[in-house]
């Protein structure tokens, strides 16, 4: 199966490395930022779902590297409709069916058990979708909307969710009057089409593409359109002349895996994983997040690098409480997985002041944190004092020569100025440009110099 995955924009290479390391598959990175593609045996689907750097997964029906869209809108849309009958649906639908059966075993939800026989019949009918992508679809929609917010390339990105909605509404009306199955018959599958489009040379909107492509899918498979309560989500990803047709495999984005108590600026787990991987943690490393918020980074770290010791802290008591609740949720989840071997997690949390950390000088190997952007928390003005103070203090606690820090911020101007003030203790090794909720941010990998940090910060 050829699997497509959406990943945090900017961390495509990190995701590709993880796929190579854990699945042994080479990845191709899409020109449309935030997507990777790789081929795996269908039996490897469980391992694919365990990847830490991917948000949403889909099986590729067909990829077109250089699709020539007609300049005339009606003709371009007619081509999309005609394409449905020519696509090789059979194998991707088998992969989708297998994916659903794996999830049924895992979740034991009644809904899917009802749809299971339907899937088989439908697959035999036309080699098409089988019954359980409803869960998969919701997650993929999240992904579509994230991409819409992330992609700076064109103003039409905002059309994407609308395309989904209106297409489904239109088809819903048409199909409500269609087949009603008796109790003894196979249930008709419900579906929707989500179109993600980027580029300024298309004569049609994502809304129109989703509507017309969806109409052809409905006619081809005799499925019933339903925008919210669907079994199958068909994806139409268009980026300039690159087009990929796929079927969603995830119900909700995999980045929601660790957090149950959210704060105003909770970081996605997939982005937290990318930041941690950037600093290459080694067994026995002490990793600190001095501004942990709801704890996304240390929780991801403790889950993926249990051989390290993770310390999280924040000056806001409410944030510390949320992080503690998230850690408790993780512990409960681990206990449910294997009650005979619940050992806890190598993670502690404390309330502290970022400018005066209760940690010994040179005692920490890695600092990874999401710094205040100055929007929802703090202010740009406060950042001019906070950033240099923060860099000095984490420079003090990090081991000279080997310590490293990975810091995320959208206030790049302030960060650059602060870094220039502490250039004697920190050297910038790498910058990864990322998109966080539509904001253009940067992840900085810093390396600690051998210079001794000042114990007293009298100039503050």
UniProtKB/TrEMBL annotation:
One of its GO terms (molecular function) is RNA binding. Residues 170-183 have a biased composition (Acidic residues). SUPFAM superfamilies: S-adenosyl-L-methionine-dependent methyltransferases, THUMP domain-like. Pfam families: THUMP, UPF0020. Residues 138-249 form the THUMP domain. SMART domains: THUMP. Residues 104-187 are annotated as: Disordered. One of its GO terms (biological process) is tRNA methylation. It is found in: Cytoplasm. Transmembrane segments: none annotated. This is THUM3 protein. It comes from Furnarius figulus.
């Amino acid at each position: 199966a050829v699997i497509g995955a959406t990943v945090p924009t900017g961390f495509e290479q990190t995701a590709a490395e993880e796929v190579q390391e854990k699945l042994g598959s080479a990845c191709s990175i899409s020109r449309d930022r935030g997507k990777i593609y790789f081929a795996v045996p269908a039996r490897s689907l469980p391992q694919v779902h365990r990847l830490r750097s991917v948000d949403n997964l889909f099986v590729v029906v067909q990829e077109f590297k250089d699709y020539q869209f007609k300049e005339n809108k009606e003709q371009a849309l007619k081509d999309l409709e005609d394409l449905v009958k020519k696509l090789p649906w059979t194998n991707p639908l088998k992969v989708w069916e297998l994916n659903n059966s794996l999830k049924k075993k895992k979740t034991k939800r009644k809904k899917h058990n009802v749809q299971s026989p339907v899937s088989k019949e439908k697959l035999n009918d036309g080699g098409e979708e089988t019954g359980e992508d409803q869960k998969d679809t919701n997650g993929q929609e999240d992904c579509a909307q994230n991409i819409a917010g992330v992609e700076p390339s064109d103003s039409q990105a905002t059309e994407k969710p609308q395309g989904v909605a209106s297409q489904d509404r239109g088809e819903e009306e048409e199909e409500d009057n269609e087949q009603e199955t008796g109790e003894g018959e196979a249930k008709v599958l419900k579906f929707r089409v989500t179109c993600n489009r980027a580029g300024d040379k298309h004569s049609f909107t994502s809304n129109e593409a989703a509507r017309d492509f969806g109409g052809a899918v409905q006619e081809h498979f005799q499925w019933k359109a339903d925008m919210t309560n669907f079994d199958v989500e068909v994806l139409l990803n268009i980026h300039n002349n690159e087009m990929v047709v796929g079927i969603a495999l995830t119900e909700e984005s995999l980045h929601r895996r660790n957090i149950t108590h959210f704060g105003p600026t909770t970081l996605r787990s997939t982005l937290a994983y990318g930041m941690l991987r950037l600093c290459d943690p080694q067994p026995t490393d002490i990793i600190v997040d001095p501004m942990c918020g709801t704890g996304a980074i240390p929780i991801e770290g403790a889950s993926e690098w249990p051989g390290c010791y993770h310390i999280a802290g924040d000056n806001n008591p409410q944030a510390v409480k949320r992080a503690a609740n998230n850690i408790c949720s993780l512990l409960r989840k681990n206990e449910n997985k294997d009650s005979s071997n619940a050992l806890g997690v190598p993670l502690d949390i404390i309330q502290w002041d970022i400018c005066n950390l209760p940690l010994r000088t040179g005692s920490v190997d890695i600092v990874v944190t999401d710094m205040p952007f100055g929007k929802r928390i703090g202010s740009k003005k406060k950042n001019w004092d906070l950033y240099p103070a923060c860099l000095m203090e984490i420079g003090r606690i990090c081991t000279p020569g080997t310590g490293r820090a990975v810091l995320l911020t959208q206030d790049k101007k302030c960060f650059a100025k602060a870094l220039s003030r502490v250039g004697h203790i920190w050297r910038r090794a790498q910058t990864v440009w990322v998109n966080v909720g539509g904001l253009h941010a940067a992840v900085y990998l810093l390396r600690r110099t051998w210079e001794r940090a000042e114990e007293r910060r009298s100039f503050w």
